[in-house]
Amino acid sequence: GQQLNQSPQSMFIQEGEDVSMNCTSSSIFNTWLWYKQDPGEGPVLLIALYKAGELTSNGRLTAQFGITRKDSFLNISASIPSDVGIYFCAGQLVGGSQGNLIFGKGTKLSVKP
Amino acid sequence: ETGVTQTPRHLVMGMTNKKSLKCEQHLGHNAMYWYKQSAKKPLELMFVYNFKEQTENNSVPSRFSPECPNSSHLFLHLHTLQPEDSALYLCASSLSTGLRREIGELFFGEGSRLTVL
């Protein structure tokens, strides 16, 4: 099946540092979504991207839809302890069916105060 | 308070039991989904309901039976499950025009943690 390669798998950073994670695929996507999941909770939507090249911010978070439509990245600036969690990218393939998002395996972020 | 509510949050059942998971969305959405989240694996889409009609069954075993009585409620009926079915089951909803295959933005519930003994 289709796969998204999300990296890194985990990150251990100091509070205040910037964070960058990305997802890549050999397939073309028409939508990219970034989610955060806290332990014992469901994923929460952070940013949605719908056009190639689109750059969108949500507070300290910035995400971009790659020009090739095969990748996306998420940056977090000046990390704080509450940024801890697992971040997932998700994309809908061109021609994909409704709801059939392809999810990455997640990036687990740990922030040391 | 989340716009998508799932009950129960935790469920332990034997392989011969019959149980159901419930999902309710208060967002006015018209599409609802069941996803399965297992350790070390990406989220897997199980079922999609659009305007109460099932539009996607992602090759899910028949021991999982969904029911969508209206656009706000979604159930997942479980029977004769296997230990490998233990996972976090996530319900999600989105606003769909139903006219084309756009994704909309999925809003997830907090999940039901299922353990099959």
Structural commentary:
The complex is a heterodimer of chains A (113) and B (117). By secondary structure, chain A is mostly beta strands. Helix content of chain A is 0%, strand content 54%. In chain A, strands 2, 4, 5, 9, 10 and 11 form a six-stranded mixed sheet that branches. In chain A, strand 9 (85-93) and strand 10 form a beta hairpin. Chain B has 117 residues and is an all-beta fold. Helix content of chain B is 0%, strand content 55%. In chain B, strands 2, 4, 5, 6, 9, 10 and 11 form a seven-stranded mixed sheet that branches. Chain B starts with a strand and ends with a strand. The model of chain B has no long low-confidence stretch (mean pLDDT 88). Chain A binds chain B through residues 4, 31, 33, 35, 40-45, 48, 88, 90, 92, 95-106, and chain B through 2, 4, 6, 31, 33, 40-43, 45, 48, 50, 55-56, 58, 90, 92, 94, 96, 101-103, 105-111, 113.
N-to-C terminal Cα separation of chain B, in Å?
31 Å
- State the total count of DSSP E strands of chain A: 11
The chain-level structural class of chain A is mainly beta
Give the low-pLDDT segments of chain B: none
Main sheet record of chain B: 7 strands, mixed
SSE layout and pairing:
The complex is a heterodimer of chains A (113) and B (117).
Chain A: E1 5-7, E2 10-14, E3 19-24, E4 29-37, E5 44-49, E6 55-58, E7 61-65, E8 71-76, E9 85-93, E10 102-103, E11 107-112
Parallel strand pairs in A: 2-11
Antiparallel strand pairs in A: 1-3, 3-8, 4-5, 4-9, 6-7, 7-8, 9-10, 9-11
Chain B: E1 4-7, E2 10-13, E3 18-25, E4 31-37, E5 44-50, E6 53-57, E7 64-70, E8 73-79, E9 87-94, E10 107-108, E11 112-116
Parallel strand pairs in B: 2-11
Antiparallel strand pairs in B: 1-3, 3-8, 4-5, 4-9, 5-6, 7-8, 9-10, 9-11
Question: Which terms summarize this structure?
Answer:
heterodimer, A: mainly beta, five-stranded antiparallel beta sheet, globular, B: 117 residues, 11 strands
